[in-house]
Amino acid sequence: EGLGPQNVQLLLEHQLIFDVADLYDLTVEKLMSLPRFGQKSAENLIKAIEDSKTRPLEKLIFGLGIRHVGQRTAQSLAKQFGSLDNLKNAAEEDLLQIEDIGPKVAHSILNYFAQPESKERLQKLKAAGVSMENVKLEASQQEHILQGLSFVVTGTLAHYSRQEIKEVIENLGGKVTDSV
């Protein structure tokens, strides 16, 4: 929230960040030294960065930018492995057992975690306090009564957003698709 492309470019130009992990080293004072940043906007961005530490594991996996890993694959990986440590220690066979993951994606994941830069970035994120585990433990403990079923969410919903309904379906083991 509040960290759009212009702000990222500004942070890069002023050499305050070099990769995503450097965001967690920012301070209000450092931000206020930049053009377009006052006290309030700097505080808001620092708060948003702090809040990002507790996002679900699937968001972290997706945010790492692993080649061929989109949001749906990130969700599957988070659900299957439960922590980033488990994922990074996974064998190719473990990855290939997950629906929607073939050899190309499995190799991409293995390659990402084998890179020294990735290892360093993950260490920095961990040291900054970024949650590396699935925070929705209660969801993974629920019975998967919708396992093997696919759903398309359309129309107007009375008490929930479409995203909320999608999350409920996925937490119960169902799959949400965009078309019939």
What does this structure look like?
With 180 residues, the protein is mainly alpha-helical. It has helices spanning 5-13, 28-32, 39-51, 57-63, 71-81, 84-88, 92-96, 103-114, 116-127, 137-141, 162-171, and strands at residues 150-152, 175-177. Strands 1-2 form a two-stranded parallel ribbon. Helix 4 (57-63) crosses helix 5. The two termini are 33 Å apart.
A few lines on this structure:
A two-stranded parallel sheet has the order 1-2.
Q: How big is the Rg? A: 19 Å
- The helix-and-strand class reads mainly alpha
For the largest beta sheet, what order do the strands appear in spatially? 1-2
Based on CA inertia axes, which overall geometry fits?
globular
Largest sheet: 2 strands, parallel
Any low-confidence stretches, pLDDT <50, length ≥5? 136-141
In whole angstroms, the N-to-C terminal distance is 33 Å
The helical percent reads 40-55%
Which range does the strand content fall in? under 5%
> How would you spell out the order of helices and strands?
HHHHHHHHHHEHE
